[in-house]
Amino acid sequence: MSRKFIFFAGLFFFLLIAPVTLQVFGDHDSQRVFQLAIVLFLLMITLFGPLVGPQKLLPLRSAQVVSITLVALAFNSITLAHQPAWAFTELALIASCIGSSLIIAQRRRGLGHRLDRLLWILVIILCTLKCVQFGAGLLAAFTSGFPTLDTDILLEGFSNKRFYGQFQTFTLPLLAFPLLAITRPMAKKWAFVLLSCWWVIAISGGTRGTWMGMAGAAAVLALCGIQGRRWVGWQMLAVLAGATVFWLLFSFLPSKLDIEVVNFAGDRLSTSLSAREIIWHQAWEMIKERPLLGFGPMHFADIPNPVAAHPHQAILQWACEWGIPSTLLVMWLVSKGLWATFRLIRANHRSTEPVDLLRVCLFASLIGALAQSMVDGVIVMPYSQLWLAIVVGWLIGIHEFSTEPPAARAIAQKGWVAILTLAVAYLGYIAVRDAPNLEAREQAYIQEHGGRFQPRFWMQGVIAKPAGRLLEQTNADNFAPLATPK
């Protein structure tokens, strides 16, 4: 392994691990900056490496036509948007995520199993570090002598425990890979311990979207043949082990030590919508008013409401901001990719080759994330967007196409790199423009509306600024205290 490869791998590791393990970077705004840094890093690799056009990675002619149509619809939506600059920011963000996926897919095809091993080590290290942090915090709580144990304090690295849950929805399926692929008993035991510990943290977070995502993944994987059912079996065993350890740590042991557990996970497991009905209703009204092109990318955040700057529902969000035609085309693209992967897994369901087992875990990760996006902001939060790009790119990179992709055209190669460069440059401009003033912007919001931030691009994500103000004065009364969506 060359020094150059090790250097780039180490830099990529740092950029992906730092924002969720180092306390100084554990907020939404820092994770957004790190996301942009990772996209820039991937762009540099592409600019100084071999170029591969998107038609080589997405060879279907129909997919290419749909993609071009989506771009045309997006630019029309931006033109009619109230704040085109913010609308273009959202488009640039989506383009950077897609570009990142294609770069990862391209590198996987070039490096083969070496990149699988690199990304797999990254997942293991990252989840292990978070488990160590959780365990250290728990040990400190039990030995501190305080009469209470706040579980929220244990879930560091994210500005909201739901964002932690989104990350776990991506990684819980991936941690089952060694249980499917490794035959050495000791290695398999340690892999099961890590997966069980990861479930302990997931249970303590009480994020209902994670339960929904994993249930959706299990339902689909149960239809994927032998290896899919093995994946479900290992996850169920890990859930049982994790639930047992959770009961010991947060119920049995605290009762023996006379410690009161605060923010207990069971308190969050309810059937309420947690104010989502308000934002879903707003999204629906926006869709009815502008069904063709929507209000513009990111423009749900341009209409203040007392709950959130995004609808916590991926389909509603895309439809109200980009329009119904764009939503249907995106759903077609996603369905096409999912169906192709499902068929490939079914065709190789008896295979024990590592790449086939890895495909099962990546597919489960993507299904879980998509299921959770129906009730949560998986397509909005920066770290979740990063992992969505990684998982999708990784899946594309290991996909076995039924027909040989056509030869890449030079103009297409340079064209999509130029688009990605433009997107990254614009996002860099937004970061340089806003980053120095984020604290002042947040303080102004706190003074006017009490300080409950609504994350979108930045932590304070409301973009409505008529007359130079953060929010319309006429809407100030709408910001009464409400439950944050769980």
In short:
Helices cover 68% and strands 1% of the residues. The protein has 486 residues and is mostly helical. It has a domain of 200 residues.
List its traits.
single chain, 486 residues, mainly alpha, two-stranded parallel sheet, 19 helices, 2 strands, 68% helix, globular, disordered C terminus, WaaL-like, O-antigen_ligase-rel_domated
Overall description:
The structure is a single chain. The chain has 486 residues and is an all-alpha fold. It has a domain at 112-264 and 328-374. It is built from 19 helices and two strands. It has helices spanning 3-21, 28-47, 54-57, 61-80, 84-111, 113-143, 151-154, 161-174, 177-181, 185-205, 208-221, 226-256, 276-289, 314-322, 324-347, 354-372, 382-398, 410-434, 438-449, and strands spanning 148-150, 260-262. The protein has a two-stranded parallel ribbon. Helix 8 runs antiparallel to helix 16 and helix 15 (324-347) packs antiparallel against helix 16 (354-372). Mean pLDDT is 85; it is low at 466-486.
Shape: globular
What percentage of the residues does DSSP assign to strands (E)?
A: under 5%
- Tell me the number of strands: 2
Q: Biggest β-sheet, characterized?
A: 2 strands, parallel
Distance between the termini: 45 Å
- Please, how many helices? 19
Q: Largest sheet, order of strands side by side? A: 1-2
The residue-averaged pLDDT reads 85
Element order, helices and strands? Answer: HHHHHHEHHHHHHEHHHHHHH
Low-confidence stretches: 466-486
Whole-number radius of gyration? 22 Å
- Summarize the amount of helix as a percent range: 55-70%
- What class, by secondary structure content? mainly alpha
GO molecular function, one term: ligase activity
Transmembrane segments: 32-53, 65-81, 87-106, 118-143, 163-182, 189-205, 234-253, 386-403, 415-432
Pfam family, one: Wzy_C
Membrane topology: Multi-pass membrane protein
